[in-house]
Amino acid sequence: MKPSFYDLNYSDLEMVINQNSLNISAASVLFNWHYKKKETAQCVDKIAQRSMDFFKNTFDFSLPEIDRVHESKNDRTVKFLFKLKDHHKIETVLIPFHNKYSICLSSQVGCAMNCSFCFTGKQGLKRNLIPSEIVGQFIIAWRWLAVNRPGEERILNIVFMGQGEPLHNFDAVKKACEIFLSKHGTSIGVQKITISTAGYIPGLKRWSEEIPGVNLALSLHSPIEEKRNELIPINKKYPLNDVLTAIDQIPLNKKQFITYEYILIKDFNDAADDAKKLGTLLAGKKAYINLIPFNSFPGSHYQSPDLDKIDRFKEVLDTFKIPTLIRAAKGDDVLAACGQLNSKNQTALSIN
Ligand code: SAH
Fold this sequence. Notes:
The protein is of the alpha/beta class. It folds into two domains: 53 residues, no CATH class; 284 residues, Alpha-Beta Barrel (TIM Barrel), CATH 3.20.20.70. Helices cover 32% and strands 19% of the residues. The strands form two sheets. It has a ten-stranded mixed beta sheet with strand order 1-2-3-4-7-8-9-10-11-12, with helices on one face. The chain has a two-stranded antiparallel sheet with strand order 5-6. The longest helix has 18 residues. The two termini are 35 Å apart. The protein binds S-adenosyl-L-homocysteine. The site of S-adenosyl-L-homocysteine (SAH) has 16 residues, from β8 and β10.
């Protein structure tokens, strides 16, 4: 099987061109064609016939196929189910804001973290995605918008908050980020990419050197050890204090903050005392807190707290002067909200 063109970052592409004594100008032409214009056909922009033939014969230009599309009726969220070459399936979500979108990408088929509140974890880990399968989600979602919502094909933010633990597939996620960042292609600003992690320390240790400037979100969910152990089993291997120390070592630029995500689960971690402990833990850090009321999914035993409890939790955090946002669920009617992605359980999601 041919390697995918979409697995190459810009310097890989230049290397291939040099090794095969082709004209180096082909690199920017090809990146422009496939990533900026996002064309479906073979490149017809100015490039020597010899280079054209070489790329056509050497690389695979196919991308993940759309298996199903779920469009939310409540908001303009779109959830894609993609079919990969080996028939595994993954999900990607377009989250709307003012006729623009953030895209929530998957990094693995399933996930090994087995967090107790997350639907994806119930699938287990099937395999890592390769870079072309990560950037492919972006390109195909963009093309879908161009056809189905013309004029709205503006995906301005990328968040690695879909299926999988991105830091557990660091090399592929890193390469996908390099491709997104390339000035010759999609040219997405580094401050527009966020990687969310359950606290996988080996990946955090590589952050500063290898993906500097990319935004970091930590799924914190409880400042209390026993509770976090229950929610996020890898907390036993990589305890929260060590995770926070590793994060503190990542240099931030002036305007950069770390986002701490906190799922609010009824009668489990939603008390004023939990909020106080969370505030104490994060006080003084360059932190944003995202409160995410738990989104339920088939078979889960947790519940979302009442609204006044959520407001009360935020009020306590406000006393610590930490900017806190209550994140509204988008796309929950099509199970596209956080933690509702499970490409094995599609029958539960059949709405169209
Ligand atoms: N593995 C990474 C990225 C995937 S989860 C991580 O753990 O951060 C992306 C976000 O969705 C995380 O903050 C996660 O904790 C949250 N999430 C997972 N299940 C959820 C659920 N049922 N309700 C609300 N948020 C959930």
